[in-house]
Design brief:
The chain has about 220 residues and is an alpha/beta fold. The chain has helices spanning about 35-50, 70-90, 95-100, 160-165, 190-195, and strands at about 5-10, 15-20, 25-30, 60-65, 90-95, 110-120, 120-130, 135-140, 155-160, 175. GO terms for molecular function: tRNA N(6)-L-threonylcarbamoyladenine synthase activity.
Amino acid sequence: MEYILNIETATKNCSVALAKGGKTIVCKEIAEEGYSHAERLHVFIEEVIKEAGITLNDLSAIAVSQGPGSYTGLRIGVSAAKGLCYALDIPLIAVDTLQALASQVTISSGLIIPMIDARRMEVYSAVFAPNYERKREVLAEIITENSFEDLEEKLYFVGDCAEKCKSVLAKENYIFLDEIVYPSAKEMSAISFEKFKKSDTVDVAYFEPYYLKDFMITTSKK
C-alpha cells in the first residue's frame, strides 16, 4: 500500500498529513498569525513519519499544495517537497489548493466556492460542483456585491474570508459554512492518491507554485 506525504503551506495553516492508500493516517497542523511554516514544517514531517512507524524510505511520493496562496508559504512547502523528492528519488505531485479546500464541504446540490484571503476585499477563488469538478477557473478577484451574481444555484462559501465577505455577499442563495476554514493536508490525501495512480506528477526540477497575477490596483483621482 502506497504511503504519500502531503504538505500544505499555502495559508496560515502549516499542515502535514501522511496517507496510506489515499486515506490520512496521521496529520499535524497549526494555524498561526506569524506564519511559522519555516520552523514547524520539518518538525511535523518528522513527527508524522515517526508516529506512523515508518521511515522516509517507505514513501512512494510527496504531494504539495500548488497554490494559490501565500508566496512565502508556498515557497517553503515546495522547497521542502522538492528536497525530499530529490533525496528519496520519488515523484512529486501538485495538488490544487482550492480543490483541497472545497473537499472539506459535502453537498448534494449547488456549488462550492472556496476562497483564500489575499488582502483587503481581495480573494483567490474558484467554483466547484458537488463532486469537486472545477466549474470555473481560479481567479484573483476583488469581492463586490455583484460577485457571483451570474450563479443562481445555492453557493456554499468556505475558506478564511467569511468575516469580510458576509456583509457584501448577502444574497439569499449565499451560504457561509464557517467563519474560518483553512486548506489542510488531510483533504489532499485522496486527491494526491488519485493523481499517483494516474502517474499525474510534475517535474521536480522545474515545478513552480501557482502564482496568480497581481490584483488590479486603481489610484484615486482626488
